[in-house]
Write a structure and sequence with these properties.
This protein has nine helices and eleven strands. With 302 residues, the chain is of the alpha+beta class. A hairpin with a 5-residue loop joins β5 (82-87) and β6. Mean pLDDT is 86; it is low at 171-181. The protein is 34% helix and 18% strand. The longest helix has 20 residues, at 116-135. Strands 1-2-3-4-6-5 form a six-stranded antiparallel beta sheet, covered by helices on one side. The chain has a three-stranded antiparallel beta sheet with strand order 7-9-10. A two-stranded antiparallel sheet has the order 8-11. It has helices at residues 58-70, 105-111, 116-135, 189-193, 200-216, 229-238, 244-252, 259-267, 279-290; strands at 13-14, 17-26, 29-36, 45-50, 82-87, 93-98, 102-104, 138-139, 148-152, 158-162, 169-170.
């Protein structure tokens, strides 16, 4: 790792674990597959090792702490688990997490199409995570294909694992979120304003946009995103000017059922209060728009 200490290799010991292999690497650190030294037969885990300077600001320290602790509060099979967090003797912060075997949704969409029934189930699984987060006062704020991992379940189907609660906002009725946090293609109008309180409705907007991406293969705002940043953000604040069905058909040769338009308008309404009241309500509405049965994701709110 550039400036972050030596890269760990197979057989190295780190934070009470024996490193098996490098899983991935980025600008802020690397992720390794490892097993506990005192339980070598235990299932492998993922250790995210950050560079010593990665937490140089209070914001980054908060993001690290949130990623370490938020998922422990969420009782959902569709969230990647964090087991431990700390700082190694050489100053590198780390997280010990569930090791996932699969691909990001973003990667999957580049290589495969997702049928309607599977797409609906994936949206419902993500909705169940958001319901669980919102119930304990947490807003994800950065829902996007890169933060949704697909893994194979025992039933042979793909299931989601929602990642990166690092910029999650713990809701506080006295706190107003300042600045834009989130990914532009999925960011809600109120997040662009910056001075408006971020609520679960921002996640609901992002899930509506993410659903379009799942069914069409690309983001709704992909066309506007090619324009200037100001023009793009202005389009998001103003709301969709082209119906979801028309954009899917005319620009991507994907045919969506007519009822998808009304569903999409409610899911992504510029006024947060006009959106679905909960993520599970959004998923129910999507099932009705697609004329498909509600998938069983173990969510009591269905």
């Amino acid at each position: 790792m550039a400036g972050g200490g030596p890269r760990l290799g197979a057989g190295d010991h780190f934070a009470g674990h024996r490193i098996e292999s490098l899983v991935g690497q980025g600008a802020m650190g690397a992720v390794y597959a490892a097993r506990p030294l005192d339980r070598p037969d235990a299932p492998a885990v993922a250790i995210k090792v950050l560079t010593p300077g990665a937490l140089s600001t209070e914001e980054m320290k908060l993001r690290f702490d949130r990623e370490a602790h938020v998922t422990r509060r969420l009782d959902s099979p569709f969230v990647v688990r964090t087991y431990a967090a700390g700082t190694a003797d050489d100053g590198r912060p780390y997280l010990v997490m569930e090791l996932l075997d699969g691909h990001e949704l973003a990667h999957h969409l580049q290589t495969e199409e997702i049928d309607a029934a599977t797409g609906l189930r994936l949206v419902a699984e993500i909705a169940s995570v958001l319901d669980a987060a919102h119930a304990v006062g947490i807003v994800h704020r950065d829902l996007k294909p890169e933060n949704v991992f697909l893994v194979a379940g025992e039933d042979g189907q793909k299931h989601v694992k929602v990642l990166d609660f690092g910029i999650a906002k713990v809701m506080d009725s006295k706190t107003i979120t300042h600045g834009i946090l989130g990914t532009p293609l999925y960011i809600s109008p109120e997040q662009i304003h910056g001075q408006v309180r971020t609520t679960p409705k921002s996640d609901i907007y992002a899930l509506g946009m993410l659903a379009f991406t799942i069914f069409v293969g690309t983001a709704y705002w992909s066309v506007e995103h090619e324009e200037s940043l100001y023009a793009f953000l202005s389009s998001v604040v103003a709301g969709p000017s082209v119906s979801a069905c028309a954009r899917a058909a005319d620009e991507h040769d994907v045919i969506l059922p007519p009822a998808f338009d009304a569903w999409f308008l409610e899911a992504t309404a510029t006024d947060p209060e006009a959106r679905y009241p909960s993520a599970s309500a959004l998923a129910r509405g999507l099932a009705e728009a697609l004329r498909l049965p509600r998938p069983d994701v173990g969510a009591t709110t269905w």
